[in-house]
Amino acid sequence: MLKRIERMAVQCPPTKPPRSAKYPKETSGLLMSVIRTLSASESNEQRDREKAKLEKEYKKSDQRLDELISLHDEDLSQIMQLFGQLSNLVTTSRERVQAVKENLQACKTLLRCRRDELKKLWLEGVEHKHVLHLLEEIDKLRGVPNQLDKYIAKKHYLHATQLLVSAVSLGEGPLDGVEALRDVRAELNTKKE
C-alpha cells in the first residue's frame, strides 16, 4: 500500500490550486445567504417564505439527527459512560497532583526551617566519619607489631618492610598527635632501625 502511494506521488507531483479558487464553507455560506435574502426582501411574504423554508430544513436536520441518535444509541451511551469515567479519573488525578504539590511545598517550608539544624547534623556526621576513620587507623597501627613478627618468622621480609614503612609514615603523619600510640611508634622505630 505504501509503495503504491509512493509510486503515485512520484508519477503525479502535487500541484498548487489556482489562487482565485475559493472553497465555500457550507455553514457560513448558508447563513450569509439567509441574511442576504432577509435583508434584500421587501415584503413580509418573502420573509415568511424564507422562514418557512428554514424551519422545514431545521425539521429535516432534526429528524436526521434523531435517526442517527437512535441508530447509534448504544454507542453514544457507552461513549458517554466512558467520558464520565475518564472525567472522574482526570478529576481525581488533578486532586492528587494538587495534594502532592501542597505536600512538596510543606516539605520545602519545613526544610527551610530546619536547614541550620540539618547543616549542624551533617557537620557532626562528617566529624564522626573522620573520627571513625582515625580509630580504624589506630587499630591497624596497634596490630602492626604482631604482623611484623609473623612476617619475619615466615621470612617474608619484603612484606614486613612494606608494612613497617607504611605504619611508620602513618604514625608520623595523621596519628602523630595521639599519645596512646607513643609506645607503638617507639617499637616501630626500633624495628625500623
TrEMBL record:
Ranges of residues in domain Exocyst complex component Sec8 N-terminal: 52-150
GO biological process, one term: vesicle docking involved in exocytosis
Function in brief: Component of the exocyst complex involved in the docking of exocytic vesicles with fusion sites on the plasma membrane.
Name of this protein: Exocyst complex component Sec8
Record key words, sorted: Coiled coil, Exocytosis, Protein transport, Transport
GO CC terms, sorted: exocyst; growth cone membrane; synapse
Family: Belongs to the SEC8 family.
The organism of origin for this protein: Ladona fulva (Scarce chaser dragonfly)
Keyword Protein transport: yes
Residues in coiled coil: 44-71
